[in-house]
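User: Quick sanity check before I run a bigger batch. Here is a single chain. Can you write out its predicted 3D structure?
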Amino acid sequence: MHMPSSLPRIQWGLIAIIVIAKLALHIVANDGYGFHRDELLYLSLGRYPAWGYWSNPPMIGWISWLVQHIIGDSVASIRAVSTLAGCAVVVLAGLMAREIGGGRIAQTLAALAVAASPGFLRGSALFQPVIFDILNWTLLCWILLRYLRTGHLQYVIWWGIFFGLAFLNKYMVVFMLPALIPALILGGRRHVLWSVAALKAALWAALIIAPNIWWQYQHDWPVIAHMQGLSQNQLVNVQRLDFLTDQLVIHALGFLIWIPGLYWLLRGRTHPFSAAGWLYVFVIAILLLLKGKSYYSVGLYPMLMAAGGMWWEQRFRTPWVATALGVVLVGTLIPILPFALPVLQPDKMVAFSKKWATKAHFEAPLRWEDGLLHPLPQDYADMLGWDELARLADKAYAQAEDPAHTMIYGENYGQAGAVLILGGKHLPRPQSFADTFLLWADPHTDANALIYINDELGEDVAALFEKIQLIGQIEHPYARERGTSVYLLEQPRQPFAELWAARVREER
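Assistant: Done. Predicted structure follows.
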């Protein structure tokens, strides 16, 4: 196989222009939208950093803690971190193109294809583990390409180290392992599987993830309960054909880059990188088998974009072809940009989405996890109504007869997170049995009144109190939480402390 003797020059200037354009897009987005429900959870985790959480490894909590202590917890500040992570993915795409021998055209096309992809724009728009997961997968792919190019076993060890760190961000990275083994075998690198470097990589990875595994053991493996709930409530709605279709549409016309890139990698007759192509094939096969969500595979596409840039560069040396292809990528993004970034106000976004659904039959962005169609994309609806909810919680607390002995309870983590992050500093920490809030639920309380946040007041809860007041409800017409109500419940019919302690034991 041909091994590149020297690497082309890095096109920092062109990549920098693409990164600056991406930053500008993110800056103008989010007008009219607030925190996402998941962002409220991750900001809450940052208030109590630990070695694990109910549905997440610890990394997002640590990042959240750093962000809140260094630049604050505003919408702009936390999303700036996600945007910078997305920019790092763009840079790595260019570096991977260089790693496989690509020059100016390959590097620019790779970076531009990632920057202009709705999938990557959407992923880096919110402060979630998703964008850091994409960054970690991209980094692992870059290290893999460096090993495949040079054959130096030190990169195998580095791969194990960064795999361990990626595991601490999102458990989904484990899908890479069963895919990497056959990929290396088919790519002619089976010898590395029983090398000393592979053993060192495994030991480093185990050492890094061990504290989280120990935390899971101490807390009776909450990740298992989370995965069971995810499978029953969300993955059950995933259709395998939709998964494959989404792989084509999630990057818009980016498939003009990544499909030739996959072809270039798998041929492997004139280069040593075929194992990278097989890695993609086997990861997709695993996700199909397990009915994974469409975005689970996004972290592999920067590598394919890099290879696609190489394919185009080898066939069309003239920059005019690359320029025309770049114009096509950007030109395709502009009409669908509002689906990738919240650049339109909610009312305008509803009209925009309806137009695409009726005239172009493009309904995928409007299909939520429940499998039904809604006026707004789910992520956008999840960014509405939380300030309103926090104000209602403040109002309820102010009206309580005995605020010092009043508990606040939210039925889901978005409600509890809204109170914790957006509510007044004088409010007590909200209680909830959702996600990591369940682990924080204190069975011991001296409260004798309850501020109850839910979409309705159940008969079982109403029967516990003599005095019940409806303080208000979320009225934003497009909020996913529209109709969620805040109740002030006082004068319990039996000791509230005993009821609460029993309920906490039952939930745990």
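The first strand starts at residue 406 and ends at 410.

User: Great, the batch can go ahead then.
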